[in-house]
Specification:
This protein is an all-alpha fold. It has 14 helices and no strands.
Length: 294
């Protein structure tokens, strides 16, 4: 009897050991994954922390104290930046107008164009779409001179429309939304056609509500592109500057108040963070559902 029990225990020992081994290995892999994610997050968050802490330093302390943490933190840089009559308000308003209006127009145009490429058959569709995709491979600096000449020819130099017009033709937006439209079942649109809906009505009432996550993602990407654009506004604007080229004017010819510049960078980043926090759920939903079709 004992021999039988011993054999039974011997047969159960490998199974118990393997279960315990699997349970012990699983947390280790999870801990390693979390550590890698924390390191990656720290890599991106640390520069923002340094910028914020530098904005709390006085002008003299920025040059005399190389440490990250300020010895006597204060809000003098923010007060100077937001002082009455400062041009920062003008730059902020221009950035808000250009980014908001440009994002709305871009999302509307790219959605209509993408739906046409996804659902409507017309001569040369594949060739035109391939030609558009090819432009994504070209460096954006190649278009600066033609864009500048067009804006000068239309007498739009140093105006708000000149800051947003070149950016509303987003080829990436057309490609991104087209791929999302192709993942929507065609049967939904056919049912709307049977009920008598026009193509535009079907797009507005049936297709577009299903693309909420994609529209939110495209909105965030487009807004970031307009808000953080430096090169084109620095070329086309003189008085109607936006925030990125405007912050450059805070730097003198021979000296630079880095604390004031860092304070401007902190205030500039706040709207972007707010928009991303509000639309974060839709962005994550778009990423997780991008691989599902039908």
């Amino acid at each position: 009897m004992a021999t039988v029990l011993d054999r039974g225990l011997e047969r159960n020992e490998p199974t118990t050991t393997s279960v315990v081994g699997n349970r012990s290995r699983f947390p280790l892999g999870k801990i390693f994954t979390y550590l890698v994610m924390i390191l990656i997050a720290a890599f991106f968050i640390l520069p923002m922390v340094v910028v914020f802490l530098t904005s709390l330093k006085y002008d003299v302390e920025v040059f005399t104290d190389p440490g990250i943490f300020p010895l006597t933190p204060g809000l003098e840089n923010f007060q100077q930046l937001l002082a009455a009559g400062a041009p920062f308000y003008h730059w902020f308003l221009n950035s808000a107008i250009v980014s908001t209006a440009g994002t709305i127009i871009t999302v509307a145009l790219t959605s209509l164009s993408a739906y046409a490429f996804a659902r409507i058959d017309f001569p040369g569709k594949n060739f035109i779409f391939s030609l558009l995709i090819t432009t994504l491979l070209l460096p954006s600096v190649m278009f600066l001179v033609p864009q500048y000449k067009l804006m000068a020819q239309f007498h739009l130099y140093d105006t708000i429309p000149a800051l947003m017009l070149p950016g509303i033709a987003s080829v990436f937006g057309v490609f991104f939304m087209r791929q999302f439209f192709l993942s929507i079942p065609l049967e939904l649109e056919e049912a709307a056609y049977i009920d008598g809906a026009s193509r535009l009505r079907t797009f507005w009432s049936v297709v577009l509500p299903l693309t909420g996550p994609a529209l939110a993602t495209l909105t965030v990407i487009t807004f970031l592109g307009f808000w953080n654009d430096y090169l084109w506004p620095a070329i086309i604007c003189q008085n109607n500057c936006t925030l990125p080229p405007g912050l450059r004017l805070l730097q003198g010819q021979f000296t630079a108040n880095y604390g004031l510049i860092m304070a401007g960078a902190v205030v500039t980043a706040i709207p972007v963070l707010i928009i991303y926090i509000v639309l974060q759920r839709f962005v994550i939903q778009s990423v997780t559902s991008s691989g599902v079709k039908g």
